[in-house]
Design a protein that fits this description.
alpha+beta, about 15% helix, about 210 residues
Length: about 210
């Protein structure tokens, strides 16, 4: 296995399952390939990989993580990218999605076997797990879902989500949104500091 990222924050009871062993997930823990994470009701998990992606799992969730592949077994998952520098494949039991940057929230109801995708910003390709030709594109504030009893499992036509539904879903990850903004500001600050330390000879090129 290999080290893929680090846990940024947890609240409530969050568990890591790796090589058959279950442990309590803690801030600062390294994330190994083939790890699984489980959150109890009301708990939350936030981790980042080494490709500027932030992954957040709300309460009653379960995911497995392998390189640029995430399987959502149940619950709500938020995926954000600081930069669109690497695609991520998202899968549930009946749907799959290709994340190409921005911010997406994916949910899977294991009881109803229903997958729903919402694009907060950016773009997402969304399809039935068994039918690549069913793929549709979702853009800012658009959603879709896959359910075997709807349209023979073909994703629902992309539609703009209602304001109240949008707020309800996004609110599950409000704390993560604040953390992401801090990470972005930190990166910007480091870039500005590096630019301010450029040699005087370079600075003089901008003067007459």
């Amino acid at each position: 296995s290999s080290d893929l990222g680090v846990i940024q924050n947890t609240s409530g009871k969050v568990f890591t399952v790796f090589q058959g062993k279950t442990t309590i997930a803690k801030k600062g823990d390294s994330i190994e390939e083939f790890s699984e994470f489980i959150t109890e009701v009301g708990a939350k998990l936030i981790f980042t990989d080494y490709f500027d992606h932030e992954v957040s799992l709300a309460g009653s969730g379960h995911i497995s993580f392998i390189q640029n592949y995430i399987e959502l077994k149940r619950g709500y998952l938020s995926l954000k990218a600081l930069e669109p520098n690497r695609e991520v494949i998202l899968e549930t039991a009946n749907a799959k999605a290709l994340f190409q940057g921005g911010e997406t929230i994916l949910s899977y109801d294991s009881a109803q076997r229903k997958t729903q995708a919402l694009v907060v910003r950016g773009k997402l390709e969304f399809a039935n797990m068994e039918d690549d030709f069913s793929a549709i594109s979702l853009n800012d504030h658009e959603f879709s879902f896959v359910h075997k009893e709807f349209n023979n499992g073909v994703p629902r036509r992309a539609s703009l989500i209602g304001k109240s539904s949008y707020k309800k879903i996004v609110s599950l990850f409000s704390d993560e949104r604040i953390l992401m903004e801090k990470i972005v500001e930190t990166k910007k600050s480091k870039i500005n500091q590096a630019l301010s330390r450029k040699p005087a000879s370079i600075s003089n090129l901008n003067t007459v």
